[in-house]
Automatic annotation (TrEMBL), chain A:
Pfam family for this entry, one: SBP_bac_5
Annotated transmembrane regions: 572-594
Record-level GO BP terms: peptide transport
Keywords: Membrane, Signal, Transmembrane, Transmembrane helix, Transport
Name of this protein: ABC transporter substrate-binding protein
GO CC terms, sorted: ATP-binding cassette (ABC) transporter complex; cell envelope; periplasmic space
Record's signal peptide: 1-25
Stored PANTHER family: PERIPLASMIC BINDING COMPONENT OF ABC TRANSPORTER (PTHR30290), PERIPLASMIC OLIGOPEPTIDE-BINDING PROTEIN-RELATED (PTHR30290:SF10)
Record's keyword annotation contains Cytoplasm: no
GO molecular function, one term: peptide transmembrane transporter activity
UniProtKB/TrEMBL annotation, chain B:
Protein's recorded name: ABC transporter permease subunit
Pfam families in alphabetical order: BPD_transp_1, BPD_transp_1_N
Family: Belongs to the binding-protein-dependent transport system permease family.
Principal subcellular localization: membrane
Source organism of this protein record: Glycomyces albidus
Transmembrane parts of this sequence: 45-67, 132-153, 174-200, 220-242, 278-304, 324-350
UniProtKB keywords: Cell membrane, Membrane, Transmembrane, Transmembrane helix, Transport
CDD domains: TM_PBP2
InterPro entries to which the protein is assigned, alphabetical: BPD_transp_1_N, MetI-like, MetI-like_sf
Region (Disordered): 1-32
Protein's cellular compartments: Cell membrane
GO biological process: transmembrane transport
């Protein structure tokens, strides 16, 4: 090819591209302006959709879409109390085995069909009769005996064992029988064809993998039409990008902020930040009891950790308030046990058992128990003389944990312990933890309004039966028959106050036995466009969160368009600059091409 | 981490590459060179086939080295009982013996049945088909721009080595090349999307664009500008440097003196005589680039939440979504192996030295 012609073609192509880019910059906002008739609430997300099947979903994002598309019989109130949902009333029988619900009248599915107790019975029967759905929900479904609807407004549920809190708090999303029964296997994805039909405030109508999920408002919603016409979960792989999008007015709600991002957003016009107590705790798990159900020991935890005195001394030598201050920038609370302060009713404040941060007292405890310091300053075990040298594993991808490790290592070194910190990729760390091949490791869970599942991780029943680390239901093989006895009682106690006392007692046992050291509860940092949104109800109602609500999407349903002028668009000077730049580049290109042409002419 | 014009990773086969259609009609070729070409071809196709097989086998085992139980990811939001864990294992096929999983993987891959993703709970084949166009659009556009820009500047830099043009462009190019893509992407987002507001922050489409073809095309084009800009900025220096050194190799040659003696202008000597010769060593690079288009640009796609194969790969690593990783590894490797094979075949025709040896 004639290279000269090639050059010219390249030049032409480049000019065309630049023009196109300029044109796009000009036209696209125009295109976006057309759709102002629809009030969209845009929420940044980064989690993929596992399935829209409400019985098989596992991820938070599909919890949110299910919670808006469908409804439960009993709703979780703004302060985590059970409130009427599709059921207006409910009654537990004397023996706790039979529950009778009165189903709300006049409720319609989003396609206009009436919702009756038959739909409710159909839904619960899926949990009982459909093998795959039952397996996926076996913890709850395994306890169900029968589900019947004697008439259109009565639903009767029979259990094998009393379990009031499971019945009230487990989200069983009621699905429409007239749609679902048409498919041979409701556990497959068949029944989830978009648009979804539900009775909730918003239904999923469109989904583009990792681009966006659209939910349209249900105009016939029995509890009043939502303020926004639609909710769109928009994908932002990086929180930094989501923050930039919030500032640019491209997205309305962003969560999962770190303190630095939060600080940058604070005080900006039209943006409100929300610093709410979270549902998550961060803890240090101690490998003190790697044994199976039948008592076979496994793993290689340090023997000194079996001594409660050592664990307590280590606990006393951690300044949790300092960690909240220095690691979380104050955005959290020091932890006592499993249940964060956000669940006021069940949170245990430590009472008389609360340990003060006191390294001297901790040292005295160890001295008294006979752990004497060797020549190198490291304590040794009485009897065997083994040095107190512990492996301390953290998740490699968590920078907060890295900072915690620095502080804790320093404190524990003052106790005469040798600490060997190591950052390990999370999958490997999990594998090692369940094989018992560690001494101390980070852990942490989000806690739900019903803490039974979390407490259940510390019961003898979930100790592994094998030593291969494949059964992962016990947090770290804690087994205390006293704890188990109370656990059984709290599960069946219908009176909330009596139950709260039992749950606090369980937490006290955990605190004193110290299988786990709970470090802190982490706040949820969120921000939203307050020029556009107003009136969002939080959960809990005082100082609660917007995203991450449980049992009902109060915030999204109550959000109202603020009516303030939408994004006023790009300032004129930007367009002028862009246009000027494009003109200069194109003119330059033309002049250059002409010049070349001229020399070519001269040459011929 | 930097996007590099050469694709990372080994290679793997979906199909054996189709045998080339022999010699071109109408082009007389001597008998001796036909058999030479045949041998040359067999050798390279054989090599590629072996690489593809190795990739196919190793892909299964490599990703089993990533520790962690996929069930942990599924259940990380709430603890579950041993029974529920067992049900999940069975559903994902993790309870079957290793040899059976291996056999299913091999036969599945060869028949394009790649299994289901752990995280998306959908057929991987569908996921790949859905995302391939997005990746080709981004890295294809970026690659073409980077090659054109790199070659254009590289030619002029090499021709006037040490000039102000040369120093300025090599400096700029290398600076961008060494900038972390992630960081550069964020700067681009902040400047053009956050402060100037003339391009969207990320993604490929706005959720509220009207569904007609023109609006959609404009919207995608609008979203494409910043990622392409970032991608091109990071990789073009590679092509620039290769082209520059290639031109430098030609500069002292006698045929250029001859061309000048004929009275040709400097530009003409460069474009008509030096460039064609200098292009030869860059052929491999261009083919590798074409193979790399499929791999996409992992970092750029992640920064801009571009729904392509690169971001799928990143998400699969973090999960870890083993079946997706296996399939993508095989796909990425295969595209590279086939591109390299194509380059080698092309060399036979454009480089006489290979035919002689």
């Amino acid at each position: 090819m004639n290279p000269h012609a090639l050059t010219r073609r390249l030049l032409a192509a480049a000019a065309a591209l630049l023009t196109a880019a300029g044109a796009l910059a000009v036209t696209a906002p125009g295109a976006a302006a057309q759709e102002e008739a629809t009030d969209s609430l845009l929420i940044a997300t980064n989690q993929e959709v596992d399935t829209f099947n409400p019985f098989k979903r596992r991820f938070v994002i599909t919890y949110n879409t299910s919670m808006m598309t469908y409804e439960t019989l009993v709703r979780m109130g703004t302060d985590y109390e059970p409130v009427p949902g599709l059921a207006t009333e409910w009654e537990e029988s004397e023996d706790g085995l039979t529950w009778t619900f009165t189903i709300r009248e006049g409720v319609e599915w989003s396609d206009g069909e009436p919702l009756t107790a038959q739909d409710v019975a159909y839904t619960y029967n899926l949990l009982i009769e459909n093998q795959a759905i039952r397996d996926w929900n076996i913890d709850f479904a395994g306890n169900l005996v029968s589900a019947e609807a004697p008439d259109d407004t009565t639903f009767i549920l029979t259990l094998a064992q009393p379990s009031p809190w499971d019945v009230l708090t487990r989200e069983v999303f009621i699905v429409p029988e007239h749609i679902w029964s048409e498919f041979p296997d409701p556990s497959a994805d068949d029944a989830n064809q978009l648009p979804l039909v539900g009775s909730g405030p918003f239904q999923v109508t469109e989904y583009q993998t990792d681009e966006f999920i659209r939910l349209e408002a249900n105009e016939n919603y029995w509890d009043g039409a939502p303020g926004f016409d639609e909710i769109v979960f928009d994908y932002y792989a990086e929180t930094d990008a989501a923050v930039a999008a919030l500032e640019a007015g491209e997205v309305d709600i962003v969560n999962g902020l770190n303190p630095a991002q939060m600080e940058a957003l604070e005080g900006q016009d039209g943006i409100t930040v929300n610093n709410a107590q979270g549902r998550r705790y961060v803890s240090l798990t101690i490998n003190y009891n790697s044994v199976t159900q039948d008592g076979t020991a496994f793993g290689n935890g340090h023997p000194a950790l079996k001594d409660p005195v050592v664990r307590q001394a280590m606990h006393m030598a951690i300044d949790k308030a300092a960690l909240v201050d220095r690691v979380l920038d104050g955005n959290g609370q020091p932890a006592t046990s499993i249940i964060p302060e956000i669940f006021e009713q069940y949170h245990w404040d430590g009472g008389d058992s609360l340990l003060e941060f006191d390294i001297d007292a901790a040292n005295a405890l160890l001295d008294e128990a006979g752990y004497v310091r060797g020549d190198d300053g490291i304590r040794t075990m009485p009897g065997t003389g083994e040095r107190l040298s512990f492996r301390f594993f953290q998740h490699a991808d968590n920078t907060d944990y890295a900072t915690v490790v620095q502080f804790v290592t320093e404190w524990w070194t003052e106790l005469g312990l040798e600490i060997k910190p190591e950052a390990i990729e999370q999958g490997t760390l999990n594998d090692m933890a369940y094989l018992g091949e560690f001494d101390i490791a980070f852990s942490g869970w989000g806690v739900g309004p019903n803490p039974t599942e979390q407490l259940g991780m510390h019961t003898c029943a979930v100790l592994p039966t094998l030593t291969d680390g494949s059964e992962r239901s016990s947090e770290n093989n804690y087994c205390n028959t006293e704890f188990d006895r109370i656990h059984v009682r709290q599960k069946v106690e219908s009176d909330p106050d009596a139950r709260a006392l039992l749950i606090k007692e369980q937490q006290r046992l955990l605190y004193e036995d110290t299988p786990v050291i709970y470090l802190y509860y982490q706040n949820v940092l969120e921000a939203y466009n307050s020029d556009k949104i107003t009136g969002m109800v939080l959960q809990p109602s005082e100082g609660g969160m917007i995203t991450g609500q449980q049992g009902y999407a109060w915030s999204y349903v109550t959000a109202q368009p603020a009516g303030a002028a939408d994004d006023e668009g790009t300032p004129a000077w930007v367009w002028i600059t862009v246009a000027a730049a494009a003109v200069v580049v194109i003119a330059g290109g033309v002049v250059f091409a002409l010049r070349r042409r001229k020399t070519a002419d001269e040459r011929e | 981490m930097t996007d590099s014009p050469t694709p990372e990773g080994g290679a793997a086969p979906l199909h054996d590459p189709a045998p080339p259609s022999g010699r071109r009609p109408g082009r007389p070729v001597s008998k001796r060179s036909t058999s030479g070409f045949g041998r040359y071809l067999c050798k390279h196709i054989g090599g590629a086939a072996v690489s593809l097989l190795l990739v196919l086998f190793s892909s299964f085992f490599i990703f089993r080295l990533i520790a962690g139980d996929p069930i942990d990811q599924l259940t990380k939001e709430r603890p579950v009982s041993p029974e529920e864990r067992a049900a999940l294992r069975a559903e994902l096929g993790l309870d079957r013996p290793m040899w059976q999983q291996f056999w299913d993987y091999i036969t599945g891959t060869l028949t394009m049945d790649l299994g289901d993703s752990f995280q998306y709970r959908r057929p991987i084949f569908d996921l790949i088909v859905e995302r391939l166009p997005a990746t080709i659009l981004l890295s294809g556009t970026g690659m073409v721009l980077a090659v054109l820009l790199g070659f254009w500047i590289g030619t002029r830099s090499g021709w006037r080595q040490g000039s102000r043009f040369d120093r300025a462009h090599v400096g700029t190019g290398l600076l961008l090349y060494s900038a972390p893509t992630f960081w550069l992407g964020m700067i681009v987002i902040l400047v053009f999307a956050r402060y100037l507001g003339i391009f969207p922050v990320n993604g490929m489409r706005s959720p509220n664009t009207p569904p007609d073809l023109w609006s959609q095309a404009v919207d995608i084009g609008h979203h494409l500008v910043l990622p392409v800009l970032t991608y091109t900025a990071v990789v073009y220096a590679g092509y620039l440097m290769i082209m520059r050194s290639s031109i430098l190799d030609e500069i002292g040659n006698d045929y250029l003196t001859t061309a000048r003696a004929k009275g040709l202008r400097d530009d003409e000597v460069r474009d008509r005589h030096a460039v064609p010769n200098a292009l030869l060593p860059t052929v491999t690079l261009v083919f590798l680039a074409i193979g790399g288009v499929v791999n996409g640009s992992i970092v750029t796609e992640t920064v801009f939440s571009w729904p392509g194969l690169g971001s799928l790969f990143v998400q699969a690593i973090f999960y870890p979504d083993r079946p997706v990783l296996q399939a993508l590894f095989v796909l990425f490797s295969a595209s590279t192996i086939i591109a390299v094979l194509a380059a080698e075949i092309l060399y036979w025709f454009i480089d006489p030295r290979i035919r002689k040896s």
